[in-house]
Amino acid sequence: MVAMDLFRSEEMSLVQLIIPAESAHDTVTYLAELGLIQFKDLNPDKSPFQRTYANQVKRCGEMARKLRYFHDQITKAGRTATFTATSDRSIDLDELETKLTELEAELLEINANSDKLQRSHSELVELQLVLHKASEFFSSAKNSAKNVQQRSAEDKGSSVEDGIERPLLQEQTETSKSVRLGFISGVVPKAKAASFERILFRATRGNMFLKQALIQDAVTDPATGEKVEKTVFVVFFAGERAKTKVIKICEAFGANRYPFPEDPNRQWQMKSEVETRLSELQNTLDAGTHLKDNVINNIGSNLDHWTVMVRREKAVYHTLNMLSIDVTRKCLVAEGWCPVFAKPKIQDALQRAAHDSNSQVNTIFQVLHTKESPPSYFETNKFTNAFQEIVEAYGVGRYQEANPGCFTIVTFPFLFAVMFGDWGHGICLLLGALYLVLNEKKLGKQKLGDIMEMAYGGRYVILLMAIFSIYTGFIYNEFFSVPFGIFGGTAYRCPDPQYSVENCPVASTSGLEKWSYEPYAFGVDPVWHGSRSELPFTNSLKMKMSILLGISQMNLGILLSYFNARYFRSALDVWYQFIPQLLFLNALFGYLSFLIVLKWCQGSKPDLYHVMIYMFLSPTGDLEDNQLFSGQSYVQIVLLIIALVAVPWMLFPKPLLLRRQHMQKLQGRHYTALSRSDYSSSDDEGTGEHDEEEFEFGEVLVHQMIHTIEFVLGAVSNTASYLRLWALSLAHAQLSAVFYERVLMFAWAYSNPVIRLIGLIVFAFVTFGVLLLMETLSAFLHALRLHWVEFQNKFYQGDGYKFKPFSFNTCSEEDDA
């Protein structure tokens, strides 16, 4: 059922809704909850500010801004918005707007008061530190002065007290003008302390004395509110000019100046006042913090509900602005696309909206007929969605053309596995995919990184890639490049009967001999591993298998073009595109695939390169040892003729027939115009001239020529492109063998357990980094290219546009902006 739903997009209808004005809001809301209608903008010429519901959209935008502000405040407070059972669910938009305005004003006032109080608290803390450090400066200076005066008094016979109280430079002050000494105290950031001292010294020409003390713990800066390491300073100077310079330098360096009294009693009193004010401020701050926590808790319990409500209302009014208003302004006209299966659901939603809004008139629902191309809509689930995204990354499919998504579910992981075939690596990949799948509900609720988000989105793709890799790994018989004889015994034995196959001394030189015609049950016989013909055998096998897979997938693409042509009733595409393309591809490369299978069945040794080359260079030549069946030369001549005829078959008939159909259409239109009035005749003639201008035979012919050349050359290049399956598979196998033999086995050759452990760790890391990450990405990209280019270009136009219904589920945070 899923595959059939994915094969073609859902049938769509263009519908028109005539909605009474009183029920317009409820109608759009119910349709958004349903999420099955894509509205068309019927006011493309109007700017957003000229539309009917511009004021409502502006209101919702303002409320969204307030909600973002609340969210930032909750985040800064270290809280998270939580759902509670007491959340208000009955509030309407007008009440919510009023409530948000009140809460914002309250929160802004609380924050403003808290900032002022915090600034005052930080200033008082700095003042307390200045009082403490500066008092230490002065007391230390006074003690030093006493010691000096004491020594001086002992020499001169005067008392210490007299020396302390006597003015400095008494003899000079008596004869000259006295100079008044002053000082400024404060705090400066530690990072600027050295520059601060240097600039002070230069500005005062050394006529200053600076004393600094580092504060042990970082303090809160009053201006920025951040923790900063600071230093207390006291700078002494002489004169008013020096004071002015020091003040300006303090302002330039962001130093906060604080008063410091010289009187010790005043210092003690000031310290006591500062401590009292700090205690009072701390109590006030605690009360403000408690009040703010209550407001934030109240907001946080309702924030998610309010955010969803505002987001939905804004989306509804945005959609209402896309509707056309009747001249009487009593009803709104809407147009949009919806799936055909959704019509009953939409009509039911319209009836419920009319009933709930108490509208006296129901919404009129009618289907419009149009030639406009509808959007493409595929109903996917969590399993098929990732594969559909892979297809639509190339281009959204045209309406109801064959969708490669349903085939990609199988072909994409299988082609990946052909390049990644190793059941050991497949098991590792499977474990990672199972982790993502089993924990999808838990991971879906978390915010993942970019890479993890991509892996989570493609978890089912990775799961299938891992399962197919295990399958192809059993076919290649590789487990971290080591073969295992799981499916029975080998058909080969050592020529010397006394040796087993594993210990045969000539296994890598002259080789083993075949003793049984019963093949290995499943996959490659393990004895090929390590033999001298291992690489030629696996190369031949994988190369031919790549060609067979490529021709099969390209034929599938051509076959899907037939289903497209049949569905759209285009006989020209069937007869002059599908048939010649099918004949051309299979006459050459289909024949090559037949020879590969025939050669495998017969066990003969003809050179297929020689057969294909001389099929063109010498069609009538003798095949000699390269003949696989009787009459092969005649068959090749017929196939070559078919391939040559298919080229003009694709090129010329379709443009000529399109031109003839166009001329017949014009001729029939002119005949019809003879039996009509002059007015209608002139209209038809104008229409006919317009159609004739649209059809250009030269452009059609050139387009068909390009299409033909592209297919003919692409048949060769696309077939060669599928050889990447062989190349990537060979590279993966050889890298795995090198890591196993040169890293793990090299370390295992030593008996030292430390060396073995190191070798095992290195082997695990290179296997994970190179083979499980880089090789996985490489094989993924190559499988992607094979689907986009080699497969989809045979039938997939990819020029449609995606169905994007108006739904509340798709409303994101970007809608709040």
UniProtKB/TrEMBL annotation:
GO terms for cellular component: vacuolar proton-transporting V-type ATPase complex; vacuolar proton-transporting V-type ATPase, V0 domain. GO terms for molecular function: ATPase binding; proton-transporting ATPase activity, rotational mechanism. The chain crosses the membrane at residues 414-438, 459-476, 545-563, 575-598, 633-652, 754-774. Keywords: Coiled coil, Hydrogen ion transport, Ion transport, Membrane, Transmembrane, Transmembrane helix, Transport. It is a multi-pass membrane protein. Residues 93-120 form a coiled coil. GO terms for biological process: vacuolar acidification. It is found in: Membrane. Its main location: membrane. Essential component of the vacuolar proton pump (V-ATPase), a multimeric enzyme that catalyzes the translocation of protons across the membranes. Required for assembly and activity of the V-ATPase. Belongs to the V-ATPase 116 kDa subunit family. This is V-type proton ATPase subunit a. It comes from Physcomitrium patens (Spreading-leaved earth moss).
